[in-house]
Amino acid sequence: MQLSIRERLARGMTMRYEVLGPIRVLGSGEPSFISARKIEALFAALLARCDQVVTTDQLIREIWGEAPPKRATAALHVYISQLRKFLKASGGLRTRSPIVTRPLGYMLRIGNDEIDVRDFQSLTDRGTDLYHRAEYGEAILVLERALQIWRGSALANHQEGLITYAYTTWLEESRLECTETLLEAYLKMGRHREVVGRLYALTTEYPLRESFYRHLMQALYRADRQADALAVYQTARTRLQDELGLEPCETLRQLNNDILAGGFYAADGGAAA
Could you tell me the residue ranges of all domains in the chain? Predict the structure, then answer.
């Protein structure tokens, strides 16, 4: 009988790495966190490149930036040793460390362990596929589950290194794309009133992402709030002009014009009412 991840964790047979929020490790006991900032920065870089070799030079740059100490390589060896001890203490029955030494550097080998990013990707892919098959109700359930995996900013407090910055930028974009598909599914089902508050919050948090203004305008118009929908356009226009010196994109401008003319139609081809 195949055991679930929860059962495998409880028995100490595997570990779970979580990076979609503050970094933590789940083993057979309580979640484990690293308190030493430089060791956590090392861990963040290895997690971001899991199953790939990260060179010694890259790790030194991630930990100390462009001004490493003279004995940075020796200090890195100490941090690797401390990280291995932390992972061993976090649980699991394995005798081998997941951190392996390679000629040019180090690698965090995932093997049979779990990492929350892969769960998020799997659910996002499944939900997106359901959306494209017009199975909007199921898509909503799956995409909501994907977003619930997030506990905060990815690799929280460790996003400034070259490796971690690229990784967290990609993760955040994936999160926003998942959110957009989810909102479109809600609108396709006519559940526009359910997402109005959420969209207002998103336009505040991401003031330069025009797709959220578009979704909000659509939701408000379909909820018989034409004046509010037009006000959202003006807010978007002001923010874009102030921040970037740009006008809203053509899609947003056309939507505004259609609402003004009373000729806006829902994306599924039905009249927006």
Answer: 5-112, 192-273
Shortest CA distance to 15 belongs to which of 136, 155, 113, 161?
Answer: 113
Supply the pTM of this predicted model: 0.88
CATH 1.10.10.10 fits 5-112, yes or no: yes
The CATH class of 192-273 is mainly alpha
Same CATH topology for 5-112 and 192-273: the answer is: no
pLDDT tens digit sequence for 217-268: 999 999 999 999 999 999 999 999 999 999 999 999 999 999 998 866 544 4
Q: 28-72, pLDDT tens digit by residue?
A: 677 889 989 999 999 999 999 999 999 999 999 999 998 899 999
